[in-house]
Amino acid sequence: MPKTRMPLLKEDKPSKRMSRKITIILLLLFIALLAVIFFRSSVSKITAINFQGDKYTSREELLTASGLTIGGQFFAVSGDSVESALTGLKTVQEAAVDKKFPGVINISIKEFPAVAYELDEAGSLEAILSSGAAVSVKDTGIAVEKPILTNWKADDPYKTKLCQALADIPNELTSDISEIVPSPTLSFPDRIKLYTRSRFEVITAISLLKDKVEYLNQVIENEQPGLIKMLEADSYVPFHTEAEDSGEDADTQE
C-alpha cells in the first residue's frame, strides 16, 4: 500500500500590512500624547504681551479689544484677527502683531494723530484725534500749535469731518489757528469760524478748508488783522482802515 504524505501546515504569521497599521496607530497615539503634554505645559502659553506706540489708548483697552491674556494659548493667536480687532478702536489707525516663540507677543500700534483740543463738561482738556475720538491728555501733554474746539456737540457729524480735514492739512498751515467754532447756515451747514493767534477772524466751511487754507496764510502773512471770508469767493476786510487810523491820529494831535 503506497504511503501518502501529509502536507505540512504553514504557521500563521501576521501580515506586513497589519504590522504597519499597528505601528501607525501607536505612532499617532504617541504624537497625540506629546501634543496633550505640550499644550498643557507653560511652553505653549502666552507669557508676555508688549504694546508699542500706544500714547492715547490704555493697555487695558488694548488687551480687552485684542482678547489676549497672559496664560492664553500662544498658538491659538491669529495675528490678522488681533490686528483687525485693534483697528476697530477709534484711537488705533494701524496695528501689527509679531509672535515670538516661546510665549511673547509684540504689537506695534499707530494711533490717529491729535488735530485739536477741547474742554469736556468737567472742564478737563481732551485731545481730539483725526478719527473724532476724544482722549484725556493728563499723561500725554499738549501741543500748543493745535486749535481748541469750542461749542461743538459730541454727536455733531461735522465735528468728525472737521478733524479729518485738519489731519489732511500740514501743521505749518494750521499752527496759527487758536479756536474753531461751529457757525452753520442754510447755505453752508458745515460753516465754521476760526480765530487765529495773529488776531484774524475767519469764516469758511469744513468742506472748503483744505483748499482755502493757503489763501488764509497768505493774508495773515501780508495784511493787518481783519475779517477773512473763504466761501464761494474770498475776501478780506481789515478791522481798522487807514482812514480810521488817520482820524485817531488827528484826535490825538488835538
From TrEMBL:
<dbReference type="InterPro" id="IPR034746">
    <property type="entry name" value="POTRA"/>
</dbReference>
<comment type="function">
    <text>Cell division protein that may be involved in stabilizing or promoting the assembly of the division complex.</text>
</comment>
<keyword id="KW-0472">Membrane</keyword>
<keyword id="KW-0132">Cell division</keyword>
<keyword id="KW-1003">Cell membrane</keyword>
<keyword id="KW-0812">Transmembrane</keyword>
<dbReference type="InterPro" id="IPR050487">
    <property type="entry name" value="FtsQ_DivIB"/>
</dbReference>
<keyword id="KW-1133">Transmembrane helix</keyword>
<dbReference type="InterPro" id="IPR026580">
    <property type="entry name" value="DivIB"/>
</dbReference>
<protein>
    <recommendedName>
        <fullName>Cell division protein DivIB</fullName>
    </recommendedName>
</protein>
<dbReference type="Pfam" id="PF08478">
    <property type="entry name" value="POTRA_1"/>
</dbReference>
<feature type="domain" description="POTRA">
    <location>
        <begin position="44"/>
        <end position="112"/>
    </location>
</feature>
<dbReference type="InterPro" id="IPR013685">
    <property type="entry name" value="POTRA_FtsQ_type"/>
</dbReference>
<comment type="similarity">
    <text>Belongs to the FtsQ/DivIB family. DivIB subfamily.</text>
</comment>
<keyword id="KW-0131">Cell cycle</keyword>
